[in-house]
Structure formats: C-alpha cells, structure tokens
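FORM 12-B: Structure-to-Sequence Request
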C-alpha cells in the first residue's frame, strides 16, 4: 500500500522505525520499492553519486526533475521526496514556490525537502505548506552549506545544540511533516525526536531517531569514500569490476558468445 504522511506519523507514535534510502533512477528505485523501503529520497547527493560532481552544489532543478520522474516511474508504494537543489529556493519565498511547484506539477513526487531552519527557511516551509506542498526539513549538517560548515559533525557546543534544537521545533511549527537530522550527536537527535510530534529521520545521528536514511550508493559499496557514519552492506564496486573484467577476458579469448 502507498505510504502517506499520516502513516509516517502513525509509525512514529507506534515506535515503528521508518526505513529510508536515496534513489537516482528507475531501476534502483524499483529495487528499493520491492524491498519495501518506506520512503525514497531523490537526494541532491545524486550530483555526486550519479553525475560525477564533487559536491551537491552544481545540480540544477531540471536535473532533479529529470531524475525524480525516473524514480517515480519505478515506485509503487514508497513515499517519494525530491530535494530542492542549491539556490532554487533560498533567494525568496516566490522562488521556492516556483521551484517546489514545478517539482510537484511535473513529477509524481509526494513532497520536497529543503535544508536549513530559521528565520528564512521556516517562513518558506510555512508558505509552501500553506499552498499544499508537503515539506521535509533538514538540519544539522546541511551539505548545501559545505563551503561554510565542511562535512563535520554539527552541534558540538551548547549554543550550537540549542540552535539546531530550536530550528527543528520551528520547522515543525511551520508545518514540516518530517525532518532529516544529519551528523549531529545522538543525544541531541534523541532530544529533538522526543520533543517533536513529526518523525525525525537520522543519518549519522544515532539510534534514537524515528527512522534512518543512507545514501544508497554508500550502502551498496559504490562510493569512492564512505562518510564515517555510513555502512556498506555489500561491495558492488568490486562485483561490477570483476564481472566486467571477466566479460572482457571472454571477448578477448573468443569465449563469448559461446
Ligand atoms: O541528498 C541526500 O542524499 C540527502 C541525504 C543525505 C539525507 O539529503
């Protein structure tokens, strides 16, 4: 059955962990859907894992829409969220409405995700929610701010922790239906999770979030470098290299086709 926002909130109440992964094309998305993943994020990390960029900053709205359409074609049941790329929502609320609206009109995504908190993003989330576009928040390490934050764990000092906590509370009040907590201490993630009625989805934020998300390329062992909090469940990179080398040998030795 198709996963809804109501289901995600119900699962938080019931203490049922929400399983989330990223996808960038129809084939991967369809496999994740077959494995009954609850929520699939078309994350802007696809700039790195599928398009060869060094970070998430260069990806465009058109590219995100192209990949989200493909992902949606592969999904029957999972809830699909599309990331708003860098500089397609930060300059004004009008720009955010146009970009998020284009995603919702042109793809089958169920919601959008944006990075950051107050004051500007909280107002943006409130306006998008008001006009009927569901928004997932994202606080802690926000990769679109890599030039300012790097990829370091966030919320180390008491002031930084209070800031992240307040942003999460403000995003819920503004209408966000869920929030990604990236690379913050488990204690802070637990405090936020306990104080919100919407689900928290952790990545590098400990066990006490309502759900977990990983970049699927990391899980499959396809990434060049794994973040410290990620886990590769298989070594697809070497499986692919070995299979392709075997094929190459067979062609060179006239063993394929046989
Ligand atoms: O772009 C992405 O893949 C993300 C996840 C890391 C949450 O935002």
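FORM 12-B RESPONSE
SEQUENCE OUT:
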């Amino acid at each position: 059955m198709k996963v809804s926002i109501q289901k995600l909130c119900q699962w938080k109440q019931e203490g049922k962990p929400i399983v989330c992964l990223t996808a960038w094309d129809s084939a991967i998305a369809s496999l994740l859907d077959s494995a009954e993943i609850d929520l699939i994020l078309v994350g802007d990390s696809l700039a790195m894992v599928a398009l060869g960029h060094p970070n998430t900053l260069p990806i465009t709205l058109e590219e995100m829409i192209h990949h989200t359409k493909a992902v949606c074609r592969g999904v029957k049941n999972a809830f699909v969220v599309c990331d708003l790329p860098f500089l397609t929502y930060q300059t004004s609320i009008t720009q955010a409405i146009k970009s998020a609206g284009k995603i919702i009109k042109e793809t089958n995504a169920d919601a959008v995700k944006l990075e950051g908190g107050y004051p500007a993003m909280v107002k943006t989330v409130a306006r998008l929610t008001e006009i009927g576009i569901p928004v997932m928040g994202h606080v802690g390490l926000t990769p679109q701010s890599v030039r300012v934050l790097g990829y370091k764990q966030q919320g180390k000092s008491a002031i930084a922790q209070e800031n992240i906590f307040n942003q999460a509370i403000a995003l819920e009040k503004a209408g966000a239906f869920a929030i990604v907590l990236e690379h913050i201490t488990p204690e802070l993630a637990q405090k936020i999770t306990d104080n919100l009625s919407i689900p928290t989805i952790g990545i590098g934020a400990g066990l006490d979030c309502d759900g977990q998300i990983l970049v699927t390329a990391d899980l499959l062992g396809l990434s060049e470098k794994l973040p410290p909090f990620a886990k590769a469940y298989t070594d697809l990179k070497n499986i692919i290299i070995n299979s392709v080398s075997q094929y190459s040998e067979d062609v060179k030795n006239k063993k394929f086709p046989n």
